[in-house]
Write a structure and sequence with these properties.
Arc Repressor Mutant, subunit A; five-stranded antiparallel β-sheet; DNA-binding; transcription regulation; 11 helices; 17% strand; single chain; Homeodomain-like_sf; 9 strands; 47% helix; globular; Jelly Rolls; alpha+beta; AraC family transcriptional regulator
Length: 304
């Protein structure tokens, strides 16, 4: 049976939905039943342009579709889904486990720390046949889940440390799996996907300078019109929208987690004046930076 081409696979923001990233965090953690039961336990094949999934399942079964290959898995297993990898799940109703979603900037930071051995670089799954491996992963997942749900001083630093430890453990497992199994690496990227990845890397390196799309396209070696076409086909947004999304993520983080003034945030993100930054922020969120900060402060106070 002919499989769907990449351009026909939906691009989602978060685990089968089209909403924007729910918080300014670069990490999202939830139990698998929390969301999958809302979709009758089935998440149809899709991909994310800028998110990486880590799934840990301790009990139950699922049918996994990963980069065109299908596999039935039972018991303790970990699954890695990098950005752009096509994936779908059909969970059993008794499934027990968690899904941790990393925004691409955090995933890229972890990849830099781990080098070529990073488990986050390829689509893969590993069956956890050794109880000691299962317990080590389960402990880290539980700590991440608890810290994510109960904000406390130093939360971001601890979450990053815990996720880094998790990636180290997963990288060991993918390098030396409990039991040899058929691996499911990603398909060879075509030129379009490579151009998109290069574009995203340039955004991450230079978004504070607010370069023009023409400048970024020239660095990649394509025209701005071709880059826009690739972004719309593969990411579901224009090139400029992808740049603006990265600016918005950083703006939200700084407004939530720092004491920087609106003017200081504006300057740090390359805006010529705070008024322009305010218009940009309000156009993308319907809230002014000040109102967004007040709302986030109220939310944080309510969780204490």
């Amino acid at each position: 049976m002919k499989t769907a081409t990449t351009t026909h696979v939906p691009v989602f923001k978060l685990y089968g939905e089209t909403q924007h990233w729910p918080t300014p965090d670069l990490l999202h953690c939830e139990s698998i039943p929390e969301r999958s039961r809302l979709h009758d336990w089935r998440i149809r094949p899709h991909r994310h342009v800028d998110l990486v999934h880590i799934l840990f399942i301790s009990h139950g079964s699922l049918e996994l579709e990963l980069e065109g290959a299908k596999q039935r898995l039972e018991g303790a297993v970990t699954i890695i889904v990098p950005a752009m990898a096509i994936h779908g799940f059909h969970f059993s109703p008794d499934i027990v486990g968690h899904i941790i979603t990393l925004a691409k900037p955090l995933a890229e930071h972890l990849n830099e720390l781990m080098g070529e051995s990073s488990a986050l670089r390829k689509a893969d799954f590993v069956r956890l046949n050794q109880p000691v491996n299962t317990q080590r992963i389960a402990t880290l997942i539980d700590q991440i889940d608890q810290e994510y749900r109960q904000p406390a001083p130093g939360r971001n630093r601890l979450l990053e440390a815990l996720v880094q430890a998790l990636v180290v453990e997963l990288s060991r497992l993918t390098a030396y799996p409990d039991k040899p199994a058929k691996r499911h690496g990603p398909r060879q990227h075509d030129k379009g996907r490579m151009h998109l990845e290069n574009f995203q890397a340039l955004i991450e390196a230079h978004y504070r300078e607010q370069p023009s799309i023409e400048q970024l396209a020239e660095q990649i070696g394509v025209s701005s019109a071709h880059l826009n076409l690739l972004c719309r086909q593969l990411a579901g947004h224009s090139a400029l929208q992808l740049l603006h999304e990265r600016l918005m993520l950083e703006a939200k983080r700084q407004l939530t987690y720092t004491n920087m003034t609106i003017g200081e945030v504006s300057d740090s993100l390359g805006f010529s004046e705070p008024a322009y930054f305010t218009r940009f922020f309000k156009r993308n969120t319907t809230l002014s930076p000040r109102d967004f900060r007040l709302r986030q402060t109220a939310v944080n106070e309510s969780t204490k």
